[in-house]
Design goal:
By secondary structure, this protein is an all-alpha fold. Helices cover 75% and strands 0% of the residues. The chain has helices spanning 2-7, 16-35, 45-57, 60-88, 95-103, 109-119, 123-148, 152-160, 165-168.
């Protein structure tokens, strides 16, 4: 009974067994709601399995592999571009550009889709460029913050060791 009260108490700390039991009860409730749901728009588990089988026969596996490859490719390109731009913030010329790019994370892709469609030569290139843009604006922000977070004393230490400015960076 003590654990049941603790579950609904604010800021209560539960032991591992109580957390496991809580999660198990919540999963069972969700499964029961799914099976006995009165909503017509929510498909039953059997309908989902049948649809999954149909989709798999139509090439879902190959499409998942293609999508995974596209995501890996976009993350790799975004990482390289973002790292280069983040390290470029040590030069005054690139600081406003990187600041602008970091603000573009608030921009919706709805209007940009047309712009990227005009630039891309294929569907794969369009998907890749949209993914790279949408991921890079977040990567640039985080990576530039890490570089800007390096204490000034570390740069001064490198200079006292007679390192050139590029080596300091």
């Amino acid at each position: 009974m003590n654990h049941a009260i603790a579950v609904f108490s604010p800021n209560a700390v539960l032991n591992k067994n109580a957390v496991r039991a809580l999660i198990a009860v919540q999963v069972v409730i969700v499964i029961l709601l799914w099976f006995f749901s009165p909503f017509v728009l929510l498909p039953k588990p059997g309908e989902v399995l049948n649809a999954f089988g149909d989709l798999w026969e139509q090439g879902l596996g190959a499409e998942l592999i293609t999508s995974f490859y596209l995501n890996i490719q976009a993350i790799a390109v975004s990482t390289v571009v973002s790292l280069l731009l983040a390290y470029a913030t040590v030069m005054p010329f690139f600081r406003p550009i990187v600041a602008l790019l970091s603000k573009l994370r608030f921009l919706s892709l709805v209007g940009l889709t047309f712009f990227f469609t005009l630039m891309a030569r294929s569907g794969h290139e369009l998907k890749l460029s949209l993914l790279v843009f949408s991921v890079s604006v977040f990567f640039v922000t985080g990576m530039a913050d890490v570089i800007n977070g390096v204490p000034k004393e570390m740069f001064d230490l490198a200079r006292t060791l007679r390192m050139g400015e590029w080596r300091v960076v």
